Every structure is written in C-alpha cells, then in structure tokens.
Amino acid sequence: MTEFVAADEGLHAGSLHEEWTFDFWAPDGSIGGVMGYRLVGRGNAWYWWALARAGEPVLHVTEWTIPRRADPMIAKAQAMWAEHVCEAPFYQWTLGNETYAAALDDPDEGLGRAYGVAVPIASDLEWYATAPVVAIVDGYEQRGVIHGVVELASGRLELDELPAHRTHRWSTDPLPPVDVPVAFAHLGLRAPFRLPDGSVLDLVLGSDGWNRRS
User: Fold this and answer.
1) pTM, to two decimals
2) What is the DSSP secondary structure assignment for residue 76, as one 8-state letter?
3) CA pair distance 104, 52, nearest whole angstrom
4) Longest C-alpha distance within the chain, in Å?
5) Cα of 160 vs its chain's centroid, Å
6) What angle do CA 120, 108, 168 make, to 5 degrees?
7) Exposed, middle or buried, 66 (CB in 10 Å: 0-12/13-18/19+)?
8) One digit per residue, pLDDT tens: the chain, 214 residues?
9) For the domain bounded by 15-213, which CATH number is listed?
10) Are 193 and 102 in contact (CB under 8 A)?
C-alpha cells in the first residue's frame, strides 16, 4: 500500500512533469468546473480551466506558455493569474484565478482554436477533503467538496459544498491525461481541451462527476 506524507502535496524535486487537477459539479448536472495546472520540464507551465453551466456557453481558459516562478504554485501570464495553496495537507486547498475566458457556444471548439467572445472570470474557491487520498498511477486522487465564489460579468455564482475531486501526479516522463471512467452517454455538460502535446481531455458531466467522453 502506497503511503503519502505531507511533503507529497508540494513539488517533487526529481520530477520533470507535475500536475494538480481540481474539479467540481452539481449532482443535478446544472453546473461543473474543471481546473488543471501542470509544470512541464524546468521552465514552463500549463493551465486550463472550464466552467460549464446548463443553457450557457462553456467558459474556457487555456494558457500553455506560463514562465515558472520562484513559487511554482503561482501561475502568471499576460492577463491571467492563478494560485494554488495547500492550507492543510490532504485536507484543504485554496484556489484562485483571474483572467478572461472564451465563451464557447459549441464545446467542440475547445478541441480546436477555442475562439469565442472574451469574458472576464475570477474565482475564489476552497477545496475540503471528505475522504482519504487513494493511490493512482504516478500519484493520488481524493474526493472532497468545493465552497466559494465565481465572479462573472453577469453576476456572482455561489458554490456551496458541491461534490469535488482532485488529483496530484508527478513523473520524470510526460504525463498522459488523468485516467477517468468512460461515459457512454454524452448528454451532460462538457469540458474539452486539447493539450500542447496533442493529447485530448474531453470530459462530460454525469451525476457522479466528470467522465471521459468516448
């Protein structure tokens, strides 16, 4: 059985690729979010974030050329800022961001150039664990809940104890997308991304969370 210690929540000096992901959803499928942050090599980072709501365009954010900072958990690029803070190992994280998202009427645009109307978005979220960490390939995953606010031009979205999930992986080799179950019915909200290495992360929301679109 793999045992993890508090230091595992942070950066692993020997790894060339390290990734943290957080996602949340409403059980009725009305809203969901996906956030990922990956350190690539010694000097670059990737960031992706999508907010999906029933009857609304997907708000889609990607930034693939983020310079590494002295604090590797802060991502800052032109017109984009994001921060990931471990407040208590394996229990609490604070997640913040402020940027512009592309509003995509067709989620499939997220697999291409992701052109859409630019809209401001800012988030102040707290992630709390509801279960212990579980080992996965190259790291671990954990179930939890999300609380907080997403600020949009149209108003504030209050998120109150929505089911949530996170992963943390690290490796000396490039990381593939997180392995999640396949959704054979594609009726839910979607959060699609094409990463710079050509891999595809095309997620669809079900009652139990985000799954991979077949």
Assistant:
1) 0.96
2) E
3) 10
4) 48
5) 18
6) 70
7) buried
8) 689 999 999 999 889 999 999 999 999 999 999 999 999 988 899 999 999 999 999 999 999 999 998 899 999 999 999 999 999 999 999 999 999 999 999 999 999 888 889 999 999 999 999 999 999 999 999 999 999 999 999 999 999 999 999 999 999 999 999 988 888 766 789 999 999 999 999 999 988 899 998 7
9) 2.40.370
10) no
What are the φ and ψ backbone dihedral angles of 72, each rounded to 5 degrees? -70, -10
> Which token pair is 145?
């809940």
Task: Name the residue type at position 44.
Answer: N
Q: Would you say 1 and 153 are in contact if contact means Cβ atoms under 8 Å apart?
A: no
User: Tokens for 66?
Assistant: 């983020």
Q: Let me know if 16 is exposed, middle or buried by CB neighbors in 10 A (0-12, 13-18, 19+).
A: middle
Task: Judge contact between 32 and 205, C-beta under 8 A.
Answer: yes
The tokens describing 111, both together, are: 């697999």
Closest CA to 175 of 2, 1, 12: 12
Handedness of CA 159, 164, 170, 173 (dihedral sign): negative
Which one-letter amino acid corresponds to residue 22?
F
